[in-house]
Structure formats: structure tokens, C-alpha cells
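QA checklist item 7 of 12: single-chain prediction sanity check.
[x] sequence parsed
[x] length recorded as 150
[x] structure emitted
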Amino acid sequence: MGGVNAWHEHATLSLAQEGYRSGAARRRVVDALARRDCCATAQEIADDLRDGDRRVGIASVYRALELLDRLGLVHRLDVGDGTARYEAALAGGEHHHHVLCDRCGRVEQFTDGALERAIAALSERLDYAIDEHDVTLRGACPRCRQAVGP
């Protein structure tokens, strides 16, 4: 979780350096992203921020996410369900990948050293300097496979 806490500080500092005042809605969106360990939709973030009379409207969440994306502070993931998901872009380059259930929409994160080595080898073979990559695997989660049966 240290990376996410560092991201929170980095995001807050970057916004200030870019001349953005610390608006309450934007600050709360940054806080919400820092508490998550994987991607979330704008609606999920807005739902996280429903707190009595201090609600953050969905339009404010979208504006904050668009700004964070434009500044490179979040990764925007389009996992094919028509809804973008967002997660903190850690400054050190640490990242994970995603596996998506096509049936129920469940998204989980994973890391895999062998996959990273294969991407590095592919980069050399293709003679491309790969700066970043996103891997999203699709299929049926254990729960959905069990519901359908063998």
C-alpha cells in the first residue's frame, strides 16, 4: 500500500504544480482512488463518496478523472463493457494487469513475472522500445463457471 500512499502525495503535488486549486470534489476523488488497490468506474467512485451531506456528484467525479487522466496520474482502462475504469498510475511504474469475467463483469488484478519477461523479450524481438502496456484477459470467473456447470 506504500505505492498508493506515495501516489496520493504525488497526485496532490502534481495538481498543485499544474496550478489546480485543491477543490473538495477533486481531493475526495484522489482520496478514493488512493484507497483502492484496483480499477473502479466513475460510478463506483461516486458511490464510495456518498457521505451524508458531503456528496460528490457524478459530473464532478468525471471532471476530476478526466483531469487526472490528462495529467497522467491515472490509467484509464477500457475493458470492453462500455464503461471506462480508472486506477492510480504509480510514479515508480509498478503495475498490475486485469482478468475480466465476460459473464458477470467481475474484474480482478494479477501480476506475473513470466508475462513481464515475455513482453520484454517481445520488445527486443520487434525492436520496439515499449514504454507501457496493458494486459486484460477475458473469460469466465470460477463463480460463473460453477453456475453453468461443466
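[x] summary fact logged: The helical segments are 2-17, 24-35, 42-48, 58-70, 113-126, 142-148.
[ ] second reviewer sign-off
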